[in-house]
Amino acid sequence: MLDRIDIIQGNIAAFEADAVLNAANKSLLGGGGVDGAIHYAAGPELLEECRTLGGCETGEAKITGGYNLPAKYVIHTPGPIWKGGDRNEDALLAASYRNCLALAAEHGIKTIAFPSISTGAYAFPVDRAAKIALTTVRDVLAAGSSVERVTFVCYTRADLAAYRKAFSALVESR
Ligand code: AR6
Question: pLDDT tens-digit profile of 48-97?
């Protein structure tokens, strides 16, 4: 399943895939980081559609159109805010990845790009998040998802290094 996962450095708002993931907040009404970049590139119609969704709980996911993005869809998920690690953060982060992939499969999405959910403004430690992200995606693909390709789009070199390291550890543990 790891051969269906890519890790690259870039801006997720410019990535060409059936869907891109938005590391949103529970209001789904925009913000900084990934959320800001996606809304800026998609244009104001994305916010108009988001206003109709009534927000989203942490670890859950909602889907909209991609408007001016290269991607056809945006899947929005509020990841957990890091509070030290004993507030169910790991399980909530895994739920974000799982619920996004389930929604993607329901919509016939074959290619999807994820940012590093929760590791910016929400302060989740990136090494720990990378391991959870990759193992969760690998397990969903292994369980028979119709999603064919998952790309992690890392913004910084440090994030890229963390995701590559976590990926290598998974390859070695096979
Ligand atoms: N493409 C890919 N990755 C990016 C981009 C980009 N254009 N911009 C930042 N990153 P964050 P969170 C990386 O803060 O931690 C928003 O205000 C960034 O380096 O975007 O889940 C929302 O509205 C970091 O590694 O998301 C919420 O209020 C990762 O993406 C809150 O931030 C996630 O950083 C969500 O916080």
Answer: 999 999 999 999 999 999 999 999 999 999 999 999 999 999 999 999 99
Domain ranges of the chain: 2-172
Q: Looking at domain 2-172, which of 3.40.220.10, 2.160.10.10, 3.40.1010.10, 3.40.50.10610 is its CATH number?
A: 3.40.220.10
Does the model's pTM come out above 0.85?
Answer: yes
Please give the distance, rounded to the nearest whole angstrom, from the Cα atom of residue 97 to the centre of ligand 1. 15
For residue 79, report the phi and psi dihedrals to the nearest 5 degrees: -75, 175
> Which of 22, 34, 40 has most ligand 1 atoms within 8 Å of its beta carbon, as the pocket-test mutant?
34
Of residues 6, 35, 90, 139, which has the active-site annotation? 35
pLDDT tens per residue, range 93-107: 999 999 999 999 999
3 carries an active-site annotation: no
Contact 41, 33 (CB under 8 A): no
Query: What's the rounded Cα separation, in Å, for the pair 17 and 61?
Result: 18
Angle at 129 between CA 131 and CA 40, to 5 degrees: 130
